[in-house]
Amino acid sequence: MKKTTLVIMAAGMGSRYGGVKQLDPVGPSGEIIMDYSVYDAIEAGFNKIVFIIRKDLEEDFKEVIGNRIAKEIEVEYCFQELDNLPEGFSLPEGRTKPWGTGQAVLAAKDIVNEPFAVINADDYYGKEAFVKIHDYLVSLDENAEKYQFCMAGFVLGNTLSDNGTVTRGICEVNEDDILIDVKETSDLIQVGDNVEGKNLMTQKEVVLPLDSVVSMNMWGFSTKLFDELETGFKEFLSQYGKELKTEYLLPEVVGDLINKGKADVKVLRTSDKWFGVTYKEDKEKVVESFKELVEKGVYPEKLF
After folding, report:
1. pLDDT digit string (tens) for 46-60?
2. Contact, 5 vs 48, CB < 8 A?
3. How many beta carbons lie within 10 A of that of residue 295, not counting itself?
4. Hey, what domains does the chain have and what are their CATH numbers?
């Protein structure tokens, strides 16, 4: 069977959370959220894990998770750094914010040579999406006229936080479950039977039904994405490289490829309930949720 890799974006500090939330224990035996993602990925059939981290976190990261995981599956590391820029570009004075998820995935270009999935480190996705994305990737036609990518499509109502607003990619999907567009939408919070928020680009208020399809940054790609990321990052830096906060975001790269007719993105719907630690107050619920999943036999008490 075709080899597949799971790429985990773990380079970001949790600004709203106030720390390196990716390394916070939430499971009954001290597991962190990433442990569950890796466990589900191995079960689904993935063969390799690539962690995208910051160089200064490498030692702590290996101690908390990397060394344990390496006993179960092939593990590699790559680093997202502010000054890792293409030739001809330099870091603007005063920039401290990472360049975004597009640059993060681009960091894996030299060590990922097979179809791959991408996820956030601090989100729990559930088992169903890993199986669906893995099965899609192993059947991928890399010689198709358009790039064949995929995305896990979550139900908006299953991805909200009880402790504040969240940002999600609101998806427009056609009747064949092909992605038409993703609009990054912030300040999302349930109000009655709907969800209210703001379009991140236009800042216009939006009201959405609870069953809207959303992206949680769980994607499946062929390696052809890397050349597009490389070209796109240079174009992004030419336009926004002197700004201190603008980010090169993976959903916007994918949206651009769709709009140019270069990619078809299959939306693989999942009814699994997301949870994650966006705010400090979320941690208690996440701990309780994993405890319940262990009690139901979904996971063993000790993963690795």
Report:
1. 999 999 998 888 888
2. yes
3. 11
4. 5-295 (3.90.550.10)
